[in-house]
Automatic annotation (TrEMBL):
Subcellular location: Cell membrane
Keyword Ligase in record: no
InterPro entries: ABC3_permease_C, MacB_PCD, Macrolide_Exporter_MacB
Domain ABC3 transporter permease C-terminal: 295-410, 691-799
GO CC field: plasma membrane
Lineage, broadest ranks: Bacteria, Pseudomonadati, Bacteroidota, Cytophagia, Cytophagales
Protein name: ABC transporter permease
Positions of transmembrane segments: 21-41, 289-310, 335-362, 382-405, 426-450, 687-711, 739-758, 773-793
Highest taxon of the lineage: Bacteria
């Protein structure tokens, strides 16, 4: 009997080809999209859970005196925590930087990113998968290095790297004592090499190393290292938070600043809940994840509504079949099972097809989300179980609901085709309204996301970012200061700079600690009117005489740095408008001449610059101090005066290779660097737009199927109207009228939901666009056009049909 049920189900799928094709397209697409979102969400929520002790692992969050929330903390904290807090089992620091690395017998050096200096206790906190080497000796001895498999292949090929030597900064020998597998991509921190924490001082000059070692041992202010904490089983993290003030009073006085706050953040919360600065890798947000899940659920709901609606509509074409089956002795449960069997077979085929689509679309998802999800890893037992549960639910709804309606009709009425459809029509219309509301909501939401991204990319930043390249000069050292021990370097750099400025097309050059818009270093600052106890953590940039002019920045009061004033280099500061307001100096003019102390350097304010965004637009402008300190110069910026810059860049590269043959020429366009800060948002917008498009496509498939059903049901009515003189326009009006109010109702329902959700999303941005009526009008017009075109083919076909064909049986 079961075999007959499925055989009949297969025949019905083939018999109603148009309905089957529409259902397959809609349901397969919806299921595939749900699988893609499920894979993405599972990846996001799995961050850092691969560590064996993840449930007891935390990282310290640092709120600096200026209110900035930071992921990195002062270095002295970790070594003291185990002694002070009974609930702390271990604590360890990790500090990352770029290092020039090579083999002793190799000519080429590589600038390696993510080289981390870490306490040996980190091996007891995080989970490392050793390929070779002794885990118990890792990071214990100085001048040893733990490398990843990727680094082992890069530097040693197939050779066993244990015992081999790598040169750091061209002169410091580090012995390879272990090889570990790369951390998986669902880790908030990724490293290429691990080196003992104390070795970070050895990469500096002897004089600088001792000074930095002494400073960092007592510096409870600087944002420097990531501090990880392992609590004992059963220990309460809130107990650590409550006693942190007592800890600081015991160890940090008198080097503590007012307003410093330290709290524990669970390791597994970092990726989705951290909004901290200086995270080692880009984070996501729960808001974005909820939007993804919501879009996935809504799209799947649309696909399911399509299938349920069309299945219900199609079931009424089989009323006579049901009547005959009843007369021939079929029981009600058998008829219900027949519908469910057909639905199950249909959903099973759609599920198999959706896995094929999922497999094909996974590389696209990886491109948009910067992931490397692998089909065989993603499709595991839990995903298969979720798919089975999902398909079972759709099967019961899409099979059981129509079965309930058609099996309750009287056999005689069913044979006459006189079954009432009022209840099912009302439900179908309600489902279509809901479906169109979702489509309108997704479309208006995607338009607002595009509007916000355009707003970010076009918003004035307070400086000119176009036609500018940045040439990095040095690697950053452990104190955030950029130094070059080669005494000839500055002479060569000046010669290089002079040569660059002679080239046609070069408008100007400038040296600075970093380019505007890409961040700043925060340093202890005491403005006039404040005391040592009020020492503030203030953004700081070091620039040369040409910086403000090269970037087109405007002075609000006072003057820029000038060679005509010999003391500017040692005693002058420029602050921004926000600093004037924050320090209650009333007006920019009144700020001029005010005294300011910045980490021991004392000087006076010579100018106030208009606010500019020195970090990304996700962070509000804060107080900033600009000074002249060549020790912090790290980037040479070159501004061009035309768009055809490549020939000039080629000439600049030739000059660089002549002047610095030992260092590879590298450059980046500033506008591209700034845009890359919003790459995650752009990818998010692209994904939402894609999903919204798919949802609308599925909705259109459902509308098309219902139009097909309506036209078939009204074929004789249309024939009679045409015989009585109805025009093509009258017939089109008849068909469109059925859907017009459904569309309007759906749109009206979509507006408040869309407005609320997008308002919540926009609040994540410091600077955001407005939600206006134009966006909703545009989305409504777009949906109207799409639905009208969807209905149009069947409507025109019905209006042009010969009425004789439809009325012949009458």
């Amino acid at each position: 009997m079961l075999k007959n049920f499925f055989k009949t189900a297969g025949r019905n799928i083939l018999k109603y080809k148009a309905y089957s094709l529409i259902n397959f397209l809609g349901l397969t697409t919806g299921l595939a999209l749900a699988l893609l979102i499920l894979a993405y969400v599972r990846s996001e929520v799995s961050y850092d859970k691969f560590h064996e002790k993840a449930d007891r692992l935390y990282r310290i969050k640092y709120v600096a005196p200026n209110g900035l929330a930071l992921a990195s903390t002062p270095p002295p904290i970790a070594p003291l925590m185990k002694e002070f807090f009974p609930g702390v089992e271990e604590a360890a620091r990790m500090y990352g930087r770029n290092v020039s690395v090579t083999r002793p017998d190799a000519a080429e050096a590589f600038e390696e990113t993510n080289v981390f200096f870490a306490d040996s206790a980190i091996m007891k906190l995080l989970t490392f998968d050793f390929v070779s080497g002794n885990p118990d000796r890792a990071l214990v001895d100085k001048f040893t290095v733990l490398i990843t498999e990727e680094m082992a292949r890069k530097y040693f090929g197939d050779k066993d790297p244990l015992g081999e030597v790598l040169l750091f900064s061209g002169k410091h020998s580090f012995k390879v004592i272990g090889v570990v597998k790369n951390f998986p991509e669902n880790s908030h921190i990724r490293f290429n090499m691990l080196v003992p924490y104390e070795n970070m001082f050895d990469l500096e000059s002897d004089q600088a190393a001792q000074a930095l070692r002494n400073n960092l041992a007592i510096n409870f202010v600087i944002s420097h290292s990531y501090t990880y904490v392992l609590l004992k089983p059963g220990a309460d993290p809130t107990e650590v938070d409550r006693n942190m003030d007592a800890f600081l009073k015991k160890y940090a006085q008198p080097n503590l600043l007012v307003g410093q706050v330290f709290t524990l953040m669970p390791l597994t919360d970092i990726h989705l809940k951290s909004t901290l600065l200086v995270e080692p890798t880009p984070t996501n947000s729960m808001t974005n994840l909820f939007i993804f899940v919501g879009v996935g659920i809504l799209t799947l709901v649309i696909a399911s509504i399509n299938y349920i609606n069309l299945s219900t509509a199609q079931s009424f074409t089989r009323i006579k079949e049901i009547g005959i089956r009843k007369i021939l002795g079929s029981m009600k449960y058998q008829l219900i099972f027949q519908f469910i069997a057909e639905s199950f077979l249909f959903c099973l085929i759609a599920l198999l097809l959706s896995f094929a689509v999922f497999y094909a679309a996974l590389p696209l998802l990886n491109d948009l989300t910067n992931k490397t999800l692998v089909f065989t890893d993603v499709v595991d037992n839990s995903m298969l179980m979720a798919s089975v549960i999902l398909v079972t639910g759709i099967t019961l709804l899409a099979g059981g609901y129509p079965a309930y309606f058609v099996t309750r009709f009287n056999s005689i009425n069913a044979l006459k085709g006189e079954a009432s459809r009022t209840g099912s029509q009302l439900l179908r219309r309600a489902l279509v309204v809901f479906q169109l509301a979702i489509a309108c909501m997704l479309l208006s939401g995607s338009l607002l996301i595009v509007k916000q991204l355009n707003f970010l990319s076009s918003r004035p930043l307070g400086f000119q970012k176009e036609q500018t390249i940045n040439i990095p000069l040095f690697s950053q050292n452990l104190n955030g200061i950029f130094r070059q021990n080669d005494s000839t370097f500055w002479l060569r750099l000046q010669s290089f700079r002079d040569a660059v400025e002679t080239h046609t097309g070069v408008k100007g050059t400038t040296l600075s600690s970093n380019a505007p818009g890409l961040g700043a270093v925060f340093r202890g600052t005491i403005p006039e009117g404040f005391t040592q106890q009020d020492n503030m953590f203030i953004a700081n940039m070091s620039v040369d005489y040409n910086f403000l002019e090269t970037y087109g920045m405007e002075m609000q009061a006072g003057r820029p740095f000038s060679k005509e004033h010999g003391t500017d280099r040692a005693e002058a500061f420029i602050v921004n408008e926000t600093a004037v307001k924050a320090w209650n100096w009333e007006t920019p003019e009144k700020a001029l001449g005010k005294k300011l102390v910045r980490e021991g350097k004392e000087g006076r304010i010579i100018g106030v610059i208009k606010d500019f965004n020195f970090t990304s637009l996700t962070t509000p402008v804060s107080a900033m101090v600009i000074e002249m300190n060549p020790n912090q110069f790290n980037v040479l910026s070159v501004k061009f005066d035309n768009e055809n810059v490549q020939p000039t860049i080629d000439k600049i590269e030739a000059e660089w290779n002549k002047m610095f043959p030992e260092k590879t020429f590298q450059f980046t366009f500033l506008d591209e660097q700034l845009n890359s800060q919003y790459q995650n948002f752009q990818n998010f917008g692209t994904i939402i737009q894609t999903f919204a498009g798919i949802a609308i496509l599925i909705s259109c498939l459902g509308v098309y199927g219902l139009v097909l059903f309506v036209v078939q049901r009204k074929v004789k009515e249309i024939g009679v109207r045409k015989v009585l003189g109805a025009s093509v326009g009258n017939i089109l009006q008849l068909i469109y009228r059925d859907f017009a109010w459904l569309l309007v109702t759906g749109f009206v329902l979509a507006i408040p939901a869309s407005y609320y959700l997008m308002k919540q999303w926009l609040e994540n941005f410091t600077y955001h666009t407005s939600i206006d009526a134009i966006t909703y009008v545009m989305s409504f017009v777009m949906v109207v056009v799409i639905v009208a075109l969807t209905i149009g083919y069947q409507a025109v076909k019905a209006s042009l049909a010969n009425p004789v064909s439809s009325l012949r049986s009458e």
